[in-house]
Amino acid sequence: MPFKLLSSPLQGFTDFRFRNSFNKYFGGIDTFYAPYIRLNGKPEIKLAYQRDILPKNNTGLELIPQIMTNDADEFLYVAKYVQGLGYKELNWNLGCPYPMVAKRGLGSGLINDPAKINGILHKVYAESDIIVSVKMRLGYKNSEEIFRVLPFLEAYPIKSIAIHPRIGKQLYKGEVDLDSFQRCIENTNHKIYYNGNITSVAGFNELAERFPMTDHWMIGRGIIADPFLPEMIKSNTSAYPENRIEIFSKFHDALLHDYSQVLSGPGHIIMKMFHFWEYFISSFSNSQKGLKKIKKAKSMSAYENAVRDILNNEGNREFS
Ligand SMILES: Cc1cc2nc3c(=O)[nH]c(=O)nc-3n(C[C@H](O)[C@H](O)[C@H](O)COP(=O)(O)O)c2cc1C
Residue 81 C-alpha to ligand 1 middle, in angstroms? Predict the structure, then answer.
């Protein structure tokens, strides 16, 4: 069955710089979801959020902006803003697990308040023609919460509900609850997308076999850990391209170049790249040693040496 692969947003990682370089060197992603926009109590969108979704910074890729809010007026404000840029859809984040967020009734902390979700949707649909989609977890405290929300969502023409079948309290750890995901599919007429722990072609194929009606799959950390993954899933192969290291190296250099333009000083640039490497390293064999070297790097040349070591070491390996 034909299917779509979607890039699940990662605040601090999958910004427009990442998306553009990813798209140039790897591909395989049909649609990117931008990391959330959050207002700070004022009808004002931070410049960094604005820059991230500006169409001129996102040419050649399909992008859907996202909002994290528990307020209909904020939703409407951001909806109008993104429509003004030409976007047709706004994705609503009901999944963020961080306690600071959830305690304020945002992200996954809103799932246990179906009446509030209903009220927000009611007003949004009454006052805007934006297409709404939702990205959510099973709940914050327990996985029953979503089953009290789904009946309310039936009343609205929501485009899709992407479900990451964990609860907020798990953060990003522990098992994904595939049985509950199945129950979600059975308890809604809406289109359900799957999100969570897709990290290999074999793992994807198992999920696709278990959920044959699912044809939209969101990948978050997996595309940073292995940016070749989406294209390999699409081609149903576990073989990397022969010039794997060369491609990765160009991608890395493009990211480094772009962040070097906007971050000040080696400390900030290396830290930014180190956070990417915390993911990248899982597809390299001499993992922890190389990562430590990057973390310890105090100058750009020390950083570049550490990266070269990792890539050269990998280049000597045989890939099947
Ligand atoms: C550092 C980090 C930042 C994230 N930022 C967002 C975000 O802005 N919006 C969102 O909907 N999800 C966000 N997520 C959740 C991911 O999009 C995704 O739902 C989650 O990681 C599970 O999918 P995965 O196992 O494929 O990574 C974030 C996750 C991480 C680890």
Answer: 23
